[in-house]
Amino acid sequence: MTSVPRKWKELSESSDFVCYEHPTNNEPIFIGYFHSLIEPKVLHDHILGPLSNDSNLSFDDLYRSIPVGEKEIAFDWDTIQNKLLRGYVAIQYGLQPDQCMVVNAVASKGRSISAPEIEFTVEGPKEAFVESLDMNLNLIRKRVPFPELRVKELEVGELSKARVAVCYIKGLTNEQYLNTCIQRIADVQFDQITNITILQQMIEDNSNTIFPLTIGTERPDYAAWAVSSGQICVLMDGSPIAVFAPVNLGYFFITFEDYYLPWIVGSILRIIRMSSVLFSVFASPLYIAVMTYHGQGISNVFLPTIVSSRINVPFPPFVEVLILELVIELLREAGARLPTKIGQTIGIVGGIVLGTAAVEAALTSNFLLIIVALSALASFTTPIFRMSATIRLLRFPFIFSAQLGGLLGIFICTIAICAHLLRLTSLGMPYLVPYYPFRASDAYDTVIRPSYSKFHHRLSYFRSQRPVRVDKKQLNRKKDIDE
């Protein structure tokens, strides 16, 4: 290569950048690309092929002869450079022209669509998002083949330049929520955003809370349902998670599989799930409060069992609970960081061995061991991982409050948490809606999963521009074949 365009010389310092001159009978044609980003078959068959067949092609003739749909003429070097870094091939006539052709030749490398690993379902579809943004958009559009489904693409990160897509339905999604979401993404000033979970934290209403204010899902059916409900779905290239908002607190204890089951079964499972969360948070603090301050409240049926289990324990209930809770968290964290099969072994064997040894060494009571184990097990019923981590951490303020003030301390801590929740919003929507502000018409899809005959209206707190899903009379009417 004897010469290259002046602005391409800096890119040529990278070993994976290829720039060469294609000889013609007229002006020389320079072709540049990053070979680590392009598909060689597209380059040789669709770009170099027309050039090899006719060396007298003009710039316009070459543009028309390349059988690639995504191509354009660029005049700005920043645009050309960004396209090259995304897997485009640049073609220009002469050393210093006023225009350059960029042709899409992005290599389609990545894993294929597989079953969800985190939000596994028995009844639902076995498809999960992958790291390709275009493929994820395909999964959503396949489920919402509606012409008003809009995708607005943005770019975030000075170094990462990650592609972000905001999905919504025009004429259905509330404009205020949509504009808020797009503005927050556009205002993000951070150099490297490698995953959508980083962006998720940056666009939430309050960054100083342990409660998540948006939901991430790996299931396209859940994301499609959210978009059709009037919510906004955000995807990012390189991330197999879709984030949607606005959401309320109740959404974090609902699995989308509830909608695939009969409404009675789905409702019972929801109640079990929410009851498990309450048990996980309050079980250990109540043990401390009762054993430290309110021993007179213990039933005579359980009193001999509790006394006999604690008779040789040298620690007060607070220290006893704290040790067990920290051990449980240690086992959980160790199991999560190790390879899958080893992590499962560590969790099961470690829990049995440590639990048995602790009871035999009289470091803790077997009664408390059962409570802590059930509390840890109950925390796993939370379907959203970010909320599950919040529930795990939320136990510790209640444990300290129970030690300081017994049941009164637990009550004060509960009031403080509720006051904090009252102040939270998701894209401006109150976090505790429909209970605060109270909306009786929207309370049907919260603790109870109603039958589909009740889904004739969209939830009003999403402020959808099309609140009616289907006519109520038509939804409730069932025709027999002889009618």
Q: What can you see in these coordinates?
A:
This protein is elongated. It starts with 16 loop residues before the first strand and ends in a 7-residue tail after the last helix. It folds into three domains: 99 residues, no CATH class; 115 residues, no CATH class; 162 residues, no CATH class. With 483 residues, it is of the alpha+beta class. Helix 8 packs antiparallel against helix 12, helix 8 crosses helix 13 and helix 10 runs antiparallel to helix 11. It has 14 helices and twelve strands. The mean pLDDT is 86. Strands 1-2-4-5-3 form a five-stranded antiparallel beta sheet, sandwiched between helices. It has a five-stranded antiparallel beta sheet with strand order 6-7-9-10-8, sandwiched between helices. The longest helix has 39 residues. Keywords: Membrane, Transmembrane, Transmembrane helix. One of its GO terms (biological process) is spore germination. Pfam families: GerA (PF03323). It comes from Paenibacillus montanisoli. One of its GO terms (cellular component) is membrane.
Short description:
With 483 residues, this protein is of the alpha+beta class. It has helices spanning 40-53, 59-65, 77-84, 133-143, 175-186, 196-203, 220-228, 263-292, 303-310, 317-337, 340-360, 366-379, 385-423, 472-476; strands spanning 17-22, 29-34, 71-74, 88-93, 100-104, 149-156, 162-169, 215-217, 232-236, 242-245, 425-426, 429-430.
List keywords for this structure.
14 helices; transmembrane; 12 strands; elongated; 3 domains; 483 residues; transmembrane helix; 5-stranded antiparallel β-sheet; membrane
